[in-house]
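Supplementary Methods, section 5.1.

A reviewer requested that the exact input to the structure prediction be made available. We therefore reproduce it here, unchanged from the version used in the analyses.
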Amino acid sequence: MSFMAYDLTLLGLFLVVIAFFLYTHRKKAKKEGLLILYKTEWGIKLIDRIGNKYKKTLKALSYISVFLGYILMIAMMYLAYTIVRIYVLHPEVVNQIKVPPIMPLIPYIDKVVPFLPPFYFTYWIVILAIIAITHEFAHGIFAAYNKVNIKKTGFGFFPFFFPVFLAAFVEPDEKQMQKRSNFGQRAILSAGTFVNLITAIFFLIVTWLFFMSAFIPAGVNFDSYTYAPVAISAITMVNGVGVNNPTLDELATLTENATFNEIKAGGTKYVGVRGFVDEETILLYDDAPAINAKISGPILEIDGTPIKSIDELSNEIGKYSPGDEVEIKTKVNGEIITKSVILGEHPQEEGRAWLGIGFMNQNSGGLMSRIFGVLSSFKDSHIYYESNIGEAGLFIYNLLWWLVIISISVALINMLPMGIFDGGRFFYLTVLAITKSEKAAARSYKFMTILLLLVLLAIMILWGVALLG
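The structure derived from this sequence is encoded token-by-token as follows.
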């Protein structure tokens, strides 16, 4: 039985257990809004003990927490601005996004977004438990430090179809909290996101230690076949059809239904279209051995010699001459593939053997790209690694990867200045501290909530328009 089968079985058992639990404890489970809240007093004594014992430490951490709250809020607003700018100014990019820009994090989301690693139900429940409990306990601890009583703790469930564990919560005494200092309230509100960041940093270190001990280099990942920019006006033939100064539409028509495109331009043969730069320039794949042999997946061996780095790959290819035949072993979807390839001659270096693959910098881009880059900074993105403890290694690594990413994402999203997030009230208190006017603070809070809701709606509409277009 595959792990997915075990995972889906666990999901079924989990739903049955939760449904049974809520039914047998229905007196403590109350429906509030869209959620079923199961209220208890679990953990309150521990929260009070920590909040009252480490006052000096919590006082210092309050300043750090509030400062990071502002940093996260600014970062999230900048990210929202960047997304809107892309959706408005670059519909051609949006057209390539096949999934909604706003969608819940659910098990098996990787089946919808293929570039993500597997996200099993097991991951989902473990990560939600870690993030939600630590997030809410942090709120409770900072509340206890500020002399705000915790009335209840508990868990929230989404009731439609099946009850699903959604979040943990602590319920402070709201009347007491409103009487505390403006800064103290902001510290309580930002404490959850602060702990999310601490969680991300801690598990990033755990991920690094685990990866270094459990994985070894086993091959080389290449990003693309080699390609070159070509003036569209220089193209003279496409798939045996002669053309004269073709337009973009003509090229698209001639190449859209072909699995292999032979293009001639300026006396040079190319074998495929990578993309368009602008109305005058097109990117064409070189007539190279790798693309002609349809080499894909990480390269593991060349003529029996293991390849574990780009330097080893370059040195090994350098031992051969143009026209030599080599056997290249790769791995595709877990299967070892061996192909015979006749090496070509490098277009810029006479007499040098050439395979025709390329490598790019993968850690540049926007905010989330930088976050992914930091998470993967301890490994070379162009090296293919294999676990020395079998499939368990990859399972644990992906779990840790998701834990770090989701911790950071929750910290960012939760500081949006909207009514449903901690950032909403945090923003309200900030305006109140500056203006000393509850009316101005309430208006600003309402304005930001409506504005961000309209932005989210606009993003969804722009995505739909681009997808249909």
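Confidence is low (pLDDT under 50) at residues 363-368. These observations are discussed further in the main text.
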